């Protein structure tokens, strides 16, 4: 057994060549392929991990959102209920207020109408009374009632105070000493004479007296000297009566209108 | 009886003689290189990997794992050298079952050549990593008196490696030859099977020992481990 050194060196060369060839064709490609695959697997794993982390984050967020939504759902429902309640209350109040206002207006209108009706009735009644009195006076004016009126006027003339008498006498002096007597109807000559005498006695004897009829006076006597006049007439009474009627009606309707607001309208 | 394929001259051209050792070495090389090339030419980096690629990946990964187990921190540095040692020896022993094939590992020249390669590789890897000065200082450690013993240790290690592989492979062939002459039927088949097993074991041991030498050398030179390089054996 001996060593063939040529063969040994050839084998060394062969082995080194084989090392190079296998490095070239086996180890490098295989390790590279494995490393690349590992890198890819690693990349995919990390990607999957990242994706999973993202998905978990998203799921957690969704769960939180859902919980928040459920929580808020109750709150929203409660709020909506409260709002609806408040709205209903407000609408009811509004309707009630409106109805109250309308009823108030209606009541006022009713009271006003009633007051107006009462006033109008009273006014008509007053007028009617006046008409009746006027008719009665007119019917009886032609009788000796006129004489009584003249007599009464005479009495009043004689009962005048001195100041008025002087004033009338002064007026007669400045007005050519004429006096005008207006009556509602024709009076008898005796009554005329008595009235003329009374004027002469009371004021001045040289006063000329004119008599004149004025149907508008309805019933009464008027003595006019210049700007002054003395009158006794049923018209005055009637005017005063009408004025008083008017006042009464006014106060009554006011009182009714005020009192009617508080009470229910009854028919 | 033919013991060494060195003496078997297949072709002679002038002074150049092509013996069986070199020729069968080329055959082994050809099988390895062509097989690797055929598979690695169609490498896949995706999810679907061909069966043959898987096979190669398993082999390469196993070798890397073994290197890492022995203690090398960077297996890729030693993979080409140690891996080729294993693959060459394993393939040579595997092809021995083919009738007429004479494994080149059965030649002392081949095993000596591999042992010399290991002998050269140990300091080369150390120098490549730590530098020449660091490597040379390792021979005079712990004292310069140890210089001759260190040199003897290096040489004996190489010789032991060479003789071990040669002896194992050659003995297998010799035993087969003897058994065939004694019991021509059945026994040779069993021995062939045994030979396959021992062939792989030899390849494994040779490669692992080479790696151990390299690793321990770099460790002792680096001063991190005091384990004597020769404490491991087969």
TrEMBL record, chain A:
The organism's place on the tree of life at top rank: Bacteria
GO CC term (a single one): endomembrane system
Protein's membrane topology: Single-pass membrane protein
MF annotations from Gene Ontology: proton-transporting ATP synthase activity, rotational mechanism; proton-transporting ATPase activity, rotational mechanism
Family designation: Belongs to the ATPase B chain family.
HAMAP family: ATP_synth_b_bprime (MF_01398)
Subunit structure: F-type ATPases have 2 components, F(1) - the catalytic core - and F(0) - the membrane proton channel. F(1) has five subunits: alpha(3), beta(3), gamma(1), delta(1), epsilon(1). F(0) has three main subunits: a(1), b(2) and c(10-14). The alpha and beta chains form an alternating ring which encloses part of the gamma chain. F(1) is attached to F(0) by a central stalk formed by the gamma and epsilon chains, while a peripheral stalk is formed by the delta and b chains.
The protein's name: ATP synthase subunit b
Organism in which the protein naturally occurs: Jannaschia seohaensis
UniProt lineage: Bacteria, Pseudomonadati, Pseudomonadota, Alphaproteobacteria, Rhodobacterales
Gene: atpF
From TrEMBL, chain B:
Any one GO MF annotation of this record: proton-transporting ATP synthase activity, rotational mechanism
A matching Pfam family: ATP-synt_A
Membrane-spanning residues: 20-41, 78-101, 107-128, 165-187, 193-215
GO BP: proton motive force-driven plasma membrane ATP synthesis
Coiled-coil regions listed: none
This protein's record includes keyword Ion transport: yes
Keywords: ATP synthesis, Cell membrane, CF(0), Hydrogen ion transport, Ion transport, Membrane, Transmembrane, Transmembrane helix, Transport
Topological type in the membrane: Multi-pass membrane protein
Cellular localisation: Cell membrane; Membrane
Free-text function comment from the UniProt entry: Key component of the proton channel; it plays a direct role in the translocation of protons across the membrane.
Protein family according to the UniProt entry: Belongs to the ATPase A chain family.
The protein's name in its UniProt record: ATP synthase subunit a
Organism per entry: Jannaschia seohaensis
Lineage: Bacteria, Pseudomonadati, Pseudomonadota, Alphaproteobacteria, Rhodobacterales
């Amino acid at each position: 057994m001996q060593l063939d050194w040529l063969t040994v060196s050839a084998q060394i060369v062969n082995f080194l060549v084989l090392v190079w060839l296998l490095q070239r064709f086996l180890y490098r490609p295989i390790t590279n392929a494995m490393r690349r695959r590992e890198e890819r697997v690693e990349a995919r794993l990390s990607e999957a991990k990242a994706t999973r982390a993202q998905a978990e984050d998203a799921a957690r967020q969704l769960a939180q959102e859902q919980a928040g939504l459920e929580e808020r759902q109750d709150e929203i429902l409660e709020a909506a209920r409260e709002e609806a309640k408040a709205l209903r209350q407000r609408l009811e109040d509004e309707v009630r207020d409106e109805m109250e206002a309308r009823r108030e207006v209606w009541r006022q209108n009713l009271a006003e109408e009633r007051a107006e009706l009462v006033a109008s009735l009273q006014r008509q009644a007053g007028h009617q009374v006046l008409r009746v009195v006027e008719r009665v006076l007119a019917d009886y004016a032609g009788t000796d009632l006129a004489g009584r009126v003249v007599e009464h006027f005479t009495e009043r003339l004689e009962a005048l105070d001195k100041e008025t008498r002087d004033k009338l006498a002064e007026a007669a002096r400045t007005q050519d000493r004429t006096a005008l007597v207006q009556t509602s109807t024709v009076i008898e000559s005796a009554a005329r004479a008595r009235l003329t005498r009374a004027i002469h006695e009371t004021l001045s004897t040289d006063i000329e007296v004119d008599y004149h009829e004025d149907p508008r006076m309805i019933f009464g006597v008027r003595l006019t000297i210049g700007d002054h006049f003395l009158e006794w007439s049923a018209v005055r009474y009637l005017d005063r009566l009408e004025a008083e009627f008017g006042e009464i009606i006014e106060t009554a309707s006011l009182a009714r209108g005020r009192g009617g607001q508080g009470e229910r309208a009854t028919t | 009886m033919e013991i060494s394929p060195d003496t078997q001259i297949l072709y002679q051209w002038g002074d150049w003689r092509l013996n069986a050792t070199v020729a069968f070495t080329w055959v082994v090389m050809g099988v390895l290189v062509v097989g690797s090339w055929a598979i690695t030419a169609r490498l896949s980096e995706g999810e679907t990997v061909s069966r043959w690629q898987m096979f190669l990946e398993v082999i390469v990964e196993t070798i890397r794992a073994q290197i890492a187990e022995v203690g090398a921190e960077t297996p890729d540095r030693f993979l080409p050298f140690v891996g080729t040692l294993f693959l060459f020896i394993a393939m040579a022993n595997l092809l021995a079952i083919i009738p007429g094939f004479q494994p080149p590992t059965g030649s002392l020249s081949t095993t000596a050549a591999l042992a010399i390669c290991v002998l050269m590789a140990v300091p080369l890897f150390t120098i490549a990593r730590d530098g020449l000065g660091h490597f040379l200082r390792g021979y005079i450690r712990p004292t310069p008196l140890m210089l001759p013993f260190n040199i003897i240790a290096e040489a004996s290690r190489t010789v032991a490696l060479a003789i071990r592989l040669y002896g194992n492979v050659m003995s297998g062939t010799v035993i087969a030859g003897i058994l065939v002459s004694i019991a021509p039927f059945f026994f040779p088949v069993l021995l062939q099977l045994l030979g396959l097993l021992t062939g792989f074991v030899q390849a494994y041991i040779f490669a692992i020992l080479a790696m151990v030498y390299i690793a321990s050398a770099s460790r002792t030179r680096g001063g991190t481990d005091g384990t004597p390089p020769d404490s491991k054996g087969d």
